[in-house]
Each structure stands twice: as C-alpha cells, then as structure tokens.
Give the backbone structure.
Amino acid sequence: MQFTDWIADARNIVFLVIALAMVGAAVMVVTSRNVIHAALMLVVALAGSAALFLMLGAEFVAWTMVLVYIGAVVVLFLFGIMITRAPTKADPVRLDHKHRWPALLVALGTFAAMATVTTLAFEDAALPDGVARAGDIGDVLFDRFVIPFEVVSFVLLAALIGGIVLARKDPE
Amino acid sequence: MIVNQFLVLAALLFSIGIYGVLVRRNAVLVLLSIELMLTAVNINLVAFGQYLQDALVSGQVFALFVITVAAAEVGIGLAIVILIFRNRSSANVDELDLLKW
C-alpha cells in the first residue's frame, strides 16, 4: 500500500497525529531531566493510548485506561516522587547512567526486530470496523472469564495488603 | 486502517520503554518506563482483538487484566522503593548492591 493511499483515509491522519504525540511524550518520559515532567509526560502518552483504544472500538478499555492510569497510577507516581525526594530540578548527572549507547542499541534492535516481523506477517491486512460496548465486555467477563476475573481481584487484594505491610513503619 | 500501523507503534513504544528501563537510575523512573511497555502490550492486545473479531472479546478482556495487574505492580513497586529509600536514603537502582558479592 502506498503512503498516499494510506493517508487518504481521514482516520489515518488522526492516527498519525496521536501516534506522533505519543512517541514524543514517551521519548520525553525516558529522557527528561525533571522527574515531575517525566511523570506528567506519561499522562500524555497514556491519554494517546486511550484515544487509540477509542479508534479501535474499545470504549470500556479506553475509559478504564483514563480512570485507572491517569486518575490513579500517575497520582501514585507523583506521591512516590514526593516521598523519595527525587531531584525535581534539572539535574543531569543523577537521573541517567553515563553509558547510553548500549541501551539505545538494545532498544533500536528490539524495535527493528518487532517491526520487521509484524510487517512481514501482516503487510496490508485491513482492520475491520466494529465497536465492543461495555455491556458486551461485562457479559463475557462475568460468564466465560469469571474465574480469571476473581483471580485478578485476589491479586489486587494481595498487592494492597502487601503494599501496606511493606510501606508501614515497624513498631519498635 | 491496517493492523500493522498499531503493531509498529506499539513496538516503538515498547522499545522506548526498554531504553528507559536500561538507562534510568532512579527507581521511580524505571517504574514509569515499565508502564510505557505495558501500555504498548495493551495496544497490541486490543488491535489483535479487533483484527480477529473474536466473539469473546478476549483482546479487550485481557487488556483489562493487564491494566489491573499493572496497578498492583505499581502499588507494590512503589512500596518497595519507599522502603529502600527509608533504609538507604537513596532510590538509585545502581546503588543497590546488597545481594552482590
């Protein structure tokens, strides 16, 4: 498929804008010298992924992403940064390792491998339309996937208790 | 829309996350990079779910499970980071050498 054919679809223009914003924000997350900026750039990247989920017809997952990630996880990260007193001012020597080239090589190698494999496997396979409503997911979740659902809720409970036990000060 | 555009974007985000995990010294920033990688996985799951038109909506259901497990992971991870910071007054991963000979 030619790029001009691909970009002729208006949805692909939307995709391109969201993708560029996400990649820019993700690069800021891993390179920013300010810890707070890194956490806030993660919000942009996660909001972009929620937008992609809406494009893919996954309404419930998109709004769960906004609620759980942007609403809870990023706030948790900001509290973690606050409690561990990470350097919030620009401080180039403390946040990154000195040797960045090996890490860059590994990241580029991973991307090249995965992108090559998916491009060879799927080439121009079109994505069908269709929206999965929250009701559909609820039906499946409490019917076919009810045992994994309960297991996941137990994992969450265990993590909650573990977090409290770990972060609590020992009574001397 | 073709399915490969979502897969390539997810691969790119995953690679950026790998770079962050390898290059960051602060433990909280390592956890942030892990969140990027999990998001890339979620994009893949939902894209494949839409591509296969599965009657059980498995792609989205498993994306929801990944979101839940990621929330648990962040809770435990930050608790461990806070504990380490309390004991060693530093959250830098390259200064944690207690288990090293």
